[in-house]
Amino acid sequence: MKTFISCLFLSLIVFICLGASAQQRKQDPCEKANESGVTVDLVECSQKKLAEADAELNKTYRQLIAKMANKQWEAKLRLAQQAWIKFRDANCDYESEFSGGGSASTFEYNFCLADMTSTRIKQLLDMLNQIKERAGN
What is the pLDDT of residue 85? Predict the structure, then answer.
């Protein structure tokens, strides 16, 4: 009985250690994609990059809208942002197909969206900084 409990205890420790080890091995999707170059990994990485860029864009856009005292500027920004999103999506659709399409088109599309979104974030941050400077903040 004592041996059985010892074996059970040892098995439990090994099981816990293996589970912890597997969790530690879970890589960042982009690190994994850089190492493997496999399409599935590249898609996962591109989705992560796009989600991060999209979250940052929404945050920056909301900050900019909140700082605008002029409703006319706000309305024009909303129109410009809607037009920019349509342009970004159409441009990335073209670029991902132009590069050859196929299985790579999904991650190429997502990376394009993330890249263009990052550029737009910089533009919105510049606008936000100009507003803050004008207000003396």
Answer: 98
